[in-house]
Amino acid sequence: MLEALHLTKRYASLPAAQDVSFTLRPGQVLGCLGPNGSGKSTTVKMLTGLLEPTRGEVLFDGQNIRDNLSAYRKRLGYVPEEAHLYPYLTGWEYLELIGTLRGMPRSELEKKIDSLLELFSLHPNRHASIGTYSKGMRQRILLIAALMDNPDIFIFDEPLSGLDVTSALIFKNLVQALGQQGKLVFYCSHVLEVVEKVCSDVLILRKGVVIAQDSVANIGQILGQSLENTFLHLVDDVDTMRVARDIVTVMKAA
Amino acid sequence: MITAPTERVRRAWADHRQRPFWRMVQLFIDRIFRGGGDADTEGLDLGVGLVLTLLAMPGGFVSILLFDKYGTFLQWLRGATNVDPLAMALPDEYFFLVLSMTVTGAVAVWRWDAIFPDRRDYMNLVPQPISTQTIFFANLVAVLFLVALIALDVNAASCVLFPVVVGATQSKFLFFLKFALVHAIGVVLASVFAFFAVFSVMGLLMAMLPPRAFKRFSAYIRGVVVVYLVTLLCTSFAVPDAIRRAKDTIPAWAYVMPSCWFLGLCQSLRGRAGPVLLGLSRLALPGLAVVVAIALCAYAVGYQRHFVRIAEIADTTATARNPRTWRLRIPLDRFVLRTPLQRGCFRFVCRTLLRSEGHRLVLTAIGGLSLVLASQALMDAFENAKSWRQAVLSPSALSIPFILSFLGIVGLRLVFEIPVELRSNWIFQLMLDRDGEECEPLARKVILIFVLPWLLAIAFPVYVYLEGWRVASLHTLLVTTWTVLLTNIVLIRFRKLPCTCTLPLFKQHSFVTLLSVCFGFLLYAVSTPEFESSALAEPARMLSLVPIAAVAWYIPHRLARSTTDIERKLIFEESPTRAFETLGLEDFGR
Question: Which end of chain B is more exposed for a tag (fewer CB within 10 A), N or C?
Fold first, then answer.
């Protein structure tokens, strides 16, 4: 079980996340929603141990993750928001590097890399340098890197970015399958439909604060609306139609 | 089955290499040679072999050129019959020392972004089950390996060839061996010193400045280091003589020139050091130790401050500055940049040249070279003159604006070839008319706007003040005309938007181009001022330059007219010229 307890992160005096608390149980797929600057990335970085919280702690199986970060990270698969990969390595070399750093046995590593590259349709390009890969191909490499060591916790930050329709469908099914396997999945996204479809629960952040946390079905029922409308109501309260009309007016202006 | 010991060693090494620590060391070494910074595209990947060959070349070439100096037959022809090779080798030894320091220092400046772990390393390595200390030590091992490799590579050719050249007249092999050993110690230590000196300068700044301020200042500091390195290389013409002239007391300037310390070390190891060089040699090893210690401490502090906190740095929002408006923009737009395309592209090119780190570094290096050559010319002018008047009208003083304009024009032409973020040039590919032929005039305007106003603003008032309107007008007219003509020449068949095209491939005629630049410099910045110096006394003689100017104007004009339409089309990719092309006739039969 992964528990975030009163996570707070301040940069100088600016709070990026305030008192964020939630629990992620085995088999649960928790979606995290929020507009830009709501503290999603900060929360993700605190969960992965990349950022140290100003206050609060992250517990995994009752133990603070910072007590033994290496052991925690061995059980963590993380897909970051931006695909910062080494452009001069080939896809195969990159995965081999990550597997080696995770301490995977060589024979198992090579087999898994080959199989996963095949399943993600990257096998023909495995010996091409990542610099030549499209955005979707890089994203698939990141997904393979997160999956191949069979971790217990998955943290996905905008994982569908750049993926084609087929890969995105495969991934959505994969997330549900991971949940059924008893893995812990934390899923950050802007795409509300995907969160609605793949996540069992949802956490909504606004200005660094949790403003709603419940199952997807319950959140919709509270206001009797779809998740999209509920999200807009809770987070922005913006008349999107009016903004769209204003943009067209500005475009037409001389 | 019994396995051979070599096979066992090979397997053990292969297993060892697969350990996370050594795998990371490999990754860092690879990154230092093949890419760094935050860009996600591959940069200029020359390959490790080619990089090492290029770095080793200067030492090899210079050694070969010295055969002329040390050849006994040529010495005999010159009337030198009883020469002391060790005394004769002193200036060359100094030159090799500064060469190794300059090349190694330049490598440290060039690869600075790749030496230190960056955001990409953070995002890929920190989420893995390895500690940040392991990443620190893996990168440190990679840096130390790099230092050793570069120091050996840069000096490898000179360590063999220079002793061969100097010892060719000696019958004892021991002489060669001893000379080679001392030379190798000197140049390798000088290289290591240069690398760690650059490393400690950058590391100290990293340790002291906040990350954002460091990012802003690092480009300027690297520029200053490049200028220092160029200046150091230029000292090779003067320092050996100056040291010889200093009899017993060490000149103050020699204390701040590490190259002199290592020259002292070499000479003292050979037992040929006078009091000055002996005193300087005592600074070499302590100096090296101090620099290495500072570099390692600064690296550790910088790592803690910058790398470990990258995630926090990324999450703080940058404070945007209000853009400054440039007052000259309106007249420039009205009178010089007449089309919207020229206005837009001019601003893009200017911002690229002023903000892109790679472009700024190259321009700074060229600016440093210009300053060194110009100050040398200024010193020459005053050294050999009896009065102010004689000094300012001497060829050396008159050559200063020519030197600055030549290197400015050639430098800008060179940086136009360096691309900036090729993935972003789609906007120009989309917007620009390939047949529009606006890029060459744009490049000309950029060069002239960057070079000419400074020359006119300085040269004209100075000569008006010192020599009056007539001389000032003639000199300014000549500098302006020559600047415009040279700009036309360097832009012959230029058909790119500056900084948006892929890097040109190395071609056989690159050597010819390099020789042409050297020859052009002699004509432009040496011969012209010499002629001008004599012609200013009789201004009518200036008219003899008119036919030369006419030819220099006519040739590019003529070449432009004879260019085919295909060769005029705007390009975004440098593709090699094919020796032959297929006509695709097989399609006709289908």
Answer: N
Buried b (16+ CB within 10 A) or exposed e, A177-200: ebbeeebbbbbbbeebebbbebbb
Q: What angle do CA A220, A222, A223 make, to 5 degrees?
A: 75
Contact (Cβ atoms closer than 8 angstroms) between residue B271 and residue B175 = no
Write down the residue that tokens 């050129």 correspond to.
B65
* Mean of pLDDT values over B540-553: 89
> Is B20–A103 a contact, with Cβ atoms under 8 angstroms apart?
yes
* Chain A, window 82-111: residues with a beta carbon less than 8 angstroms from a chain B beta carbon: 82-89, 97-98, 100-103, 106
For the stretch A87-131, pLDDT in tens is 888 999 999 989 988 888 888 899 999 999 999 999 999 999 888
Alpha-carbon distance B41 to nearest alpha carbon in chain A (angstroms):
5
CA distance A190 to A199: 13
Nearby residues of B404 by Cβ (< 8 Å), 6 or more positions away: B370, B374, B451, B454, B455
Q: Which of B365, B363, B484 is nearest to B415 (CA)?
A: B363
Gap between the Cα atoms of A40 and A43, Å rounded: 5
CB A43, CB A49: distance < 8 Å: no
C-alpha Rg value of chain A to the nearest Å: 19
Distance from CA of B203 to the nearest CA of A (A): 24
Q: Enter the ipTM.
A: 0.78
C-alpha distance from A205 to closest chain B C-alpha (Å): 16
Residue for token pair 């997160």: A146
- Per the CB < 8 A criterion, the answer to whether B433 and B510 are in contact is no
Task: Read off the amino acid at residue A77.
Answer: G
Query: What residue segments make up the domains of chain A, in order of their start?
Result: 2-75+151-252, 83-150
Q: Is the model's pLDDT at B559 over the cut of 90?
A: no
Is A80 within 8 Å of chain B by CB?
Answer: yes
What's the pLDDT band for B42 if we cut at 50, 70, 90? Answer: very low
Classify burial at B521, counting beta carbons within 10 Å of its beta carbon; exposed 0-12, middle 13-18, buried 19 or more.
middle
Alpha-carbon torsion, ordered A246, A250, A253, A254, to 10 deg? 170
Angle at B163 (CA atoms; ends B88, B92), nearest 5 degrees = 40
Helices (H), B384-497: 388-392, 395-416, 426-431, 439-467, 469-490
Residues of A in contact with B131 (CB under 8 A): 69-70
Give the Cα separation of B146 and B196 in Å (integer): 11
> Among B21, B29, B123, which would you mutate to test the A interface (most chain A Cβ atoms within 10 Å of its Cβ)?
B123
Tokens describing residue B463: 């000569």
Q: What type of residue is B350?
A: C
Supply the mean pLDDT for chain A: 87
Q: How much is the pLDDT for B438?
A: 80
Could you tell me if A84 and B40 are in contact, meaning their C-beta atoms sit under 8 angstroms apart? yes
A80–B23 CB contact, under 8 Å: no
Which of A8, A50, A81 best tests the B interface by mutation, with the highest count of B CBs <10 A? A50
Contact criterion met (CB < 8 Å) for B131 and A69: yes
- A48 has a chain B CB within 8 A of its CB: yes
**Angstrom distances, CA of residue B237 to CA of B98, B289, B383:** 11, 28, 16
Point out which residues pair with A186 in neighbouring strands. Answer: A30, A155
Taking an 8 Å cut-off on Cβ atoms, the answer to whether B127 and A73 are in contact is: yes
Check CB contact under 8 Å for A98 and B312. Answer: no
Residue with tokens 């410099």: B521
| Mean pLDDT value across residues B260-273 | 89
Cα angle B353, B355, B356 (rounded to 5 degrees) comes to: 75
CB B296 within 8 A of CB B206: no
Phi-psi region of B289 (alpha: psi -120 to 50; beta: other; left: phi over 0): alpha
Tokens of B163: 């002793």
Query: Looking at the domain covering A2-75+151-252, what would its CATH class be?
Result: alpha beta
